[in-house]
Amino acid sequence: MTADRPLVALRGVTKRYRTGTLALNGIDLSIRQGEFVALLGASGCGKSTLLRILAGLSAPSSGSIDWPQAAHDASGDPLRDIGFVFQEPTLMPWASVMRNVTLPLELAGMKRSEAEDRAADWLARVELKGFEKAYPRALSGGMKMRVSIARALVTRPRLLLMDEPFAALDEITRFRLNNDLLHLWSEDRFTVVFVTHSVFESVFLAERVVVMAPRPGRIAQEVGIAVEGPRDEAFRTSAAYAEHCRTVSAALSATINPAERPA
Amino acid sequence: MSDEPSPERALPSLGGTEAWLRILAPTVIAFLFLGGWEAVVRINAIPHYILPGPVLVAQTLVRDWGTLSVSLLITLKITFMALSVAAVLGLVLAVLFAQSRIIELSLFPFAVILQVTPIVAIAPLIIIWVNDVTISLLICAWIVAFFPILSNTTVGLNSADHNLIDLFRLYRANRWQVLVRLLLPSALPYFLAGLRISGGLALIGAIVAEFVAGTGGSASGLAYRILEAGYQLQIPRMFAALVLVSGTGIAIFLALTLLSHLLLRKWHESAMGRGDRR
Fold it and tell me: Residue B269: phi, psi to the nearest 5?
């Protein structure tokens, strides 16, 4: 994959809601195959809207989205090949863990036995072996999120979109899921766009942090997070990590209206 | 759903004691009431054509079981047929509403009109128009039972998780897949709640229609027995028929509650015991 042929490229993407609110203004962003990108910003900066546009769940008011490497379907829409993880686990409460994970495969018409084999592999990879028959209500918040991640990855998507997936979890669970997500990513190298409002989370996870500013939503600055060595617990307490956090934090503060900025 | 204990669970639990209390307390009240009733009737020597005591009502129920059971079966048949038709049509129409906003906007007002028009007022018309008594009773009971199922299922179909709908869109699910795998399971608890309300209403509809038809002398269900016993001043028999009507209503409610519990216990909050909640 060459740098001049990104996985997806947005040019001048603008989104205006029917109410007249300008949610996104002139977004230029290109994402490379295998990259881990974090979208960081205060609430109201349009980062979730941008994620929905990438997923094809929402259409931009103007601007273009190109998928240079993607095949297109009969009607000319790009086959996006995407997994999506919402802020809530968004599981079907009436279906077992196994049925929840096989859902994307079954919707695509895969035979149930084959879908179950693949889902079982992914459930093992997110450390939920033995919970196949459990119902979502029997699981803790962190385990439900693992099911959600397994469901998003079971189709082996090229792009994984995550919308503040760990925001509602306690810190210990969040750290573990951060580590496990990085582990999965280092093994399979799918592309990730990860929306968060946490400076620390964005720096820990991403190779590139895209800092967004609100009203109207726009890209304020991009910060590359170059790290030597693995991103593990030692990294979380390292001086390099603290330095990156300071840089990103300064970039984020600059986007906030001076009246709202803490003194 | 968090892992912390809910305030509900923090309350002192009665555990097994509560299960007993749930049955024992109403039973004690019932016996006190029946005992008091019997005592009042005996002490004041109230004639049985004014107010029969519970013992006499029970004796009548046993003695007249032959006639009454035939009537009970007729009423039960009407009730269950009306409920089944209401369930099927309510579900089908709700699904149509969910598929097309135009169908919903054009038909829903008429469903409301059907619901708000008192059945007592239209039952005579239906009985005049429809020659077959059973079918006219069925129509009356159906009109009363239909609306709760339709409106509940419509709400249920519209209350599917929006993120899940997005997820289905993302995976390019077709209408049928969305309906069967997402909308119908989301609507199931609502449908069952509607069914529980409609179960009782179907019985009431059947009884009301029998009353109207019975005044013309052309029915033989429980309501007709009540009318007939009233004309003949056989008040104990009237009470016995009344007991059967109430008993039937309670049995329908319990049966539908059990059905709902069996279908939902694995996943829905409403069918979980307190101890199961997380």
Answer: -50, -40
For residues A92 and A103, the answer to whether their CB atoms sit within 8 Å is yes
- Of the pLDDT bands very low, low, confident and very high (cuts 50, 70, 90), residue B217 is low
Q: Locate A71 and state its tokens.
A: 């095949």
**Cβ atoms of residues A247 and A226 within 8 Å:** no
Which tokens sit at A89? 């686990």
**Residue to substitute from A72, A90, A107, interface B, most B β-carbons within 10 A:** A107
Q: Which residues in chain B touch residue A52, judged by CB atoms under 8 angstroms apart?
A: 166
**Domain spans, chain B:** 1-46, 53-276
B-contacting residues of A 185-224, CB under 8 Å? none
Q: Please state which architecture CATH assigns to domain B53-276.
A: Orthogonal Bundle (1.10)
Q: 3-class SS at B50?
A: coil
Nearest to B278 by CA among A97, A94, A138: A138
* Tens of each residue's pLDDT in chain A, 263 residues: 445 678 999 999 999 988 888 999 999 999 999 999 999 998 888 999 999 999 999 999 999 998 888 777 777 676 778 999 999 999 999 999 999 999 999 999 999 999 999 999 999 999 999 999 999 999 999 999 999 999 999 999 999 999 999 999 999 999 999 999 999 999 999 999 999 999 999 999 999 999 999 888 999 999 999 988 788 888 989 999 999 999 999 999 988 766 665 55
Task: Determine the length of chain B.
Answer: 278
Residue pair A137/B267 in contact (Cβ under 8 Å)? The answer is: yes
Token pair belonging to A172: 């210990």
By the CB < 8 Å criterion, does B271 face chain A? Answer: no
Residues of B in contact with A56 (CB under 8 A): 170
**CA distances for A61 relative to A11, A49, A72, B166, angstroms:** 12, 12, 21, 19
Amino acid at B253: F
ipTM of this predicted complex?
0.91
Structure tokens at A25: 């203004």
